[in-house]
Amino acid sequence: MSHLSATAQPPGPVLAIESSCDETACAILSPTGACLAQRVVSQDGHADFGGVVPEIAARAHLALLPGLVEATLADAGLSTTDLGFVAASTGPGLIGGLIVGTSFAKGLALALDIPFVAVNHVEAHALTARLPGIVPDGAPFPYLLLLVSGGHCQCIAVDGVGHYRKLGGTIDDAAGEAFDKVAKMLGLGWPGGPALEKLAQQGNPNAIPLPRPLLRRPGCDFSFSGLKTAIAQKLAPFGQAPLPHQFAADLAASFQQAVADVVADRINHALDMMPQARLLVAAGGVAANTALRTRLEEVAQQRGLRFAAPPLKLCTDNAVMVGWAALETWRESAERGLPTPNNTTLRPRPRWPLEDMAQRFEPGLTQA
Ligand code: KG4
Ligand code: ZN
């Protein structure tokens, strides 16, 4: 079932590009949002540094994009002249990568004389649950979004396309950052989240007592730095000596449990702040974590709400969500009687608050 009415559909498929961090991705979606092809390259070259190196990422995007776009078009059996418009993540994120992806997409759109739609990367995560086929009735607004990734950790009331209210967020590290840092302390590879989850499967989540930062405090802010410090203290007695495998596994499992406990508590508070929500959605890379998903599912069930989390490959950075957010923007503009969106003059921006996204639909305001 499509969310896009006939009049609100673009004349052809959208080609979307994602390059805001260390995933170089391209996807092609039909005007109704069906994924015709998608490719994601998770860049290597960062692991040795234990984190994304912006300059390496930007150069890799530049090297990868032309071939990736060509291959994605071939997968879909399309040529550039079949496209209706082009979209790209234009922020927030690492500016070098954003410039590469946005410039590539704008250049393609200008050469083909079709529109370019700038997409807010966080909004793309927020709207992923509305992709056809993820939630049976298409995730109607309003819903509560938990966005948990390497750079973000927020509870957002999603009232409509462009209408977002931040209910709470992290006061220090993002959840993914905490996973990555703890994984690094445990000597695991990078990115740390998936490696830590794998190790935790062999551990006892109740073996090692750890703090639950902000548990039962009012509101729905998060804090992870105290948890990280507690892990460092547990590891200190070992010095440079190799960690016993079972201890490392128990610590990973206990950390994961502590994160799940605080996130479940914070989400309960966020739901109290948004009584109109009928659906809880988790998005962002950390939403790929099975233990966390299970806990969130329990919270939703206890409160009589539905829970949705996109499939794993749509939780981490990808271009399908970028194409979908662009289609939602297109539809919303059409429904409000606004001109076809075309953002060729909009510049990439490392910071782009979700609260700014309503401006697009205010008549008379041009995005520059
Ligand atoms: O959304 P994402 O792909 O990129 C952005 O940060 O925008 O999220 C990446 C983050 C990384 O911190 C990674 O360690 C974490 O998501 N992550 C996980 C898992 N898979 C990815 N964290 C915990 N468990 C996982 N299975
Ligand atoms: Zn992301």
UniProtKB/TrEMBL annotation:
Cofactor needs: Fe(2+)
**List of residues binding substrate:** 147-151, 180, 193, 197, 289
Q: Which Pfam families match?
A: TsaD
Q: Please tell me where this protein is predominantly located.
A: cytoplasm
Q: Tell me where it resides.
A: Cytoplasm
Q: Name one GO molecular function term.
A: iron ion binding
What Enzyme Commission number does this protein have? 2.3.1.234
One Gene Ontology term of the biological-process aspect is:
tRNA threonylcarbamoyladenosine modification
What keywords are assigned to this protein? Acyltransferase, Cytoplasm, Iron, Metal-binding, Transferase, tRNA processing
Domain named Gcp-like: residues: 36-324
What catalytic activity is recorded?
A: L-threonylcarbamoyladenylate + adenosine(37) in tRNA = N(6)-L-threonylcarbamoyladenosine(37) in tRNA + AMP + H(+)
| Entry function | Required for the formation of a threonylcarbamoyl group on adenosine at position 37 (t(6)A37) in tRNAs that read codons beginning with adenine. Is involved in the transfer of the threonylcarbamoyl moiety of threonylcarbamoyl-AMP (TC-AMP) to the N6 group of A37, together with TsaE and TsaB. TsaD likely plays a direct catalytic role in this reaction.
What family does this chain come from, according to its entry? Belongs to the KAE1 / TsaD family.
Q: What is this protein called?
A: tRNA N6-adenosine threonylcarbamoyltransferase
Gene that specifies this protein: tsaD
